[in-house]
C-alpha cells in the first residue's frame, strides 16, 4: 500500500490522539492501512425482524422491535444491573445490562419504540437478552444495511464509543477516502484465472457487503491474497536455499551399509526406505538440505534420522540431534549409544543438567572432532558449543523453532551451512505444514512398521472402574505392563497432584501383590529416572504418572494405557500418550476414563480417539475444533498471524495460492516481468515492515 495507508490513524476524522492511543493499544491499529485491514468477524442479517414470541434460546441472534414498558435498576452497589422490558404485539422480552449502566440508562425512555439485537438466553424461566444492541426505531441509518459488519471491540474501546458500531462508522469514512487509492496487488492474469474480484472491490465489500455473494467473493479474494503472499515468501526462501547455500556432499556410505547389513534390528518399512533415499539425494546436491519429516507417532522417524547422521559421519562431518525435553534427549541418546559403540564412533549427551566437567569435555571433543554425534536439548544452541565440522542438524521438535533459533544452528559451521532435518513430534495437517514449514521440503512416513496391531481404544466412566480393574488384572496375568496417566496442569496443580496420589493409593489397594511405580513432575529427576528405569526393566508392572511420560519411555511390553480425566487432554496429547503403547507385538489397549456428562467438544475429541489411530486424521479434527492458533507451539512462530484466513476451512484456496506462488518463483523469482509489476510493488512495500522476508543470517 502507498503512503496514504501509512497515515497515522490519529488523523482520521473523529479519531484524534486519545482514541488513536487506545486503538493502538487494544487493536494494534496504527495507520489507515491497519484499520482498513481490521475486518469484521461476523455480518448480521438485519433484514429480518422476529416476533418476540418466537425468541428462543437456541437462536444465535435475533432482532426484535417493540416499545419499552419498563426500565429499572435492580440489586445493590456492586451487583447493580439495569433491567428493561420490551413488548410487541406477541410478547415481552427482558433486556439486561451489567456494565455501562448509567450511560445506557440515560438513553432509554419508557414508551419509546426501539430496535433490539442480541443473543436470546433463558434465565429463571424468562427469555432475556444480555447487553443487547439497542437503537431508537426510525432515526438511524446504520440498520438499513442488508448485512451489517460486526467488529470485535473491547471494554476500553467501548468506553471511547468504539464499539462495533463506532468502528464501523470509522471504516465507512476511511473507505470513502481510500477507495480510489487502493492499488491492485495481484497480476491481472491471476485475477482472471481464479476469477477473483479486484482488491478495491474486495475491501469495500468485506466491510459493507451488498449481498451474501459479494461478501463471499470479497473473502475469497482477500484470503487468496493473504495466503499467496505468505506462500510467495516461503517458496522464495526455499528457492534461495536451493540456489545460494552450499552444503556438504555426503556421497560415501560405508558405515551406513555396515549398519544396514549387520546391526539394524528390523526391516525398514518402505516409507522409511523412501525417505532415506530422499535425504541421501538431497545431501548430494552440493546445496544445503532443508527438509521436514512428517510421520505418525511410532512410525520410526528416529531410525531414519540416525541413518542420515551416519551419512554425515561417513563423510567426515559431525551431526547433532536436538530434542524438546531432557527425557526425550536422553531416550534418543540411550537408543543410539549402543549402535554408535558397535560402529566405533563417539556420541554424547548435552542437556541443561549436564555437569560442568562433562560439558567441558564435550566442548573439547566437539572442537577437535573426536565426538561424532551430539544429542541434547536447547543447550546445544549455546554459543560455547562449537563443532569442528558440523554437517547435519536433526531437530526433533514439538514446537516450531523460530528463524532466529534455526539460524543459530546454521552458524555452527562457519564454512558450509549444515544440512537441516526437522522431525515433527506429531502429525500436523497439510494446510498447517504448508504454512508453518512451507520453506522446507517435506517427506512423509506414511506407513507403520509391520506387525503393529492397531490399538483398541474405549471410553469408560467412573461407574465402570471395577470392570477396568478386572481388565487390568487380566492383562497383568498375561505378563503385560500398564500405564495410568493423570493430567497435570499449572492452574490446578495442587488438586491434580492429589488426584494422582489418590489414584496411586487406590491402585495399591486393589493390586497389593503388584509392584508399582509413580512418576510426577514434582519429583527430582534422579528419582523419576530411577522409577522409569524400573518400569522399563519390567521390575514394576504399573506406572502411575502425569504426562511426564508423554514423550518419554519406550517400553514395548507395556500394552495398556489408561488415561484418567481424559476429557481434560487435547487431542494431540491423547494421541501422543496412546502412542506409548502398541509398540510390541501384542494387542494393545487405550482406556479413556471420563466423567459421565461430557461437553460437546470433549465428546468429539474422545470419540475421534475411539474411531481412529491415524494421527493425520486426528490432527485434522484437532485443527477444526481448536483452530490453528491453539495447536501446540504454533503461536510463537508468527506464521499464523492470519488476518482473514481460517486454515481449517480454506485448504482449497491455500492450494491455489501455493501453486501460483511456485509457478511465479520458477518463472520469475525477482518479479521483473511487467505482468508481475503488482507483485514487485507489493513486496517492496511489505519488505520494509517485515524483518523476515530475507533470510536472517
Ligand atoms: P517416532 O516416529 O514416533 O519418533 P520412533 O522412531 O521412536 O517413532 O520408533 C518407534 C519404535 O519403533 C522404536 O522402538 C523403533 O525402534 C521401532 N521401529 C522403527 N522402525 C521400525 C521398523 N521398520 N520395524 C520395526 N520397528 C521399528
Ligand atoms: Mg520420536
List keywords for this structure.
697 residues; alpha/beta; OB fold (Dihydrolipoamide Acetyltransferase, E2P); 5 domains; 7-stranded mixed sheet; 7-stranded parallel sheet; 23 helices; 22 strands; globular; disordered C terminus; binds adenosine-5'-diphosphate; binds magnesium ion
| Ligand names | adenosine-5'-diphosphate, magnesium ion
Instruction: Please tell me the CATH architecture of the largest domain by its name.
Output: 3-Layer(aba) Sandwich
Q: What's the total number of strands?
A: 22
Spatial separation of the terminal alpha carbons: 28 Å
- Helical/strand content category: alpha/beta
The total count of helices amounts to: 23
Low-pLDDT ranges = 632-637, 691-697
Q: The biggest beta sheet, please?
A: 7 strands, mixed
Query: CATH topology of the largest domain, which one?
Result: Rossmann fold
How much is the average pLDDT?
89
Helix content: 25-40%
Instruction: Give the class-level CATH name of the largest domain.
Output: Alpha Beta
What features would you describe in this structure?
The chain is 40% helix and 18% strand. It has 697 residues and is an alpha/beta fold. The chain has 5 domains: 2-42 and 170-181, no CATH class; 48-144, OB fold (Dihydrolipoamide Acetyltransferase, E2P); 199-244 and 645-685, no CATH class; 254-284 and 299-424, P-loop containing nucleotide triphosphate hydrolases (Rossmann fold, 3-Layer(aba) Sandwich); 456-612, 3-Layer(aba) Sandwich (Rossmann fold). The strands form 4 sheets. It has a 7-stranded mixed β-sheet with strand order 6-7-4-3-2-5-8. A 7-stranded parallel β-sheet has the order 12-13-11-14-15-10-16, with helices on both faces. Strand 3 and strand 4 form a beta hairpin. Mean pLDDT is 89; it is low at 632-637 and 691-697. It binds adenosine-5'-diphosphate (ADP) and magnesium ion (MG). Magnesium ion binds next to helix 11. Magnesium ion binds at residues 301-302, 396.
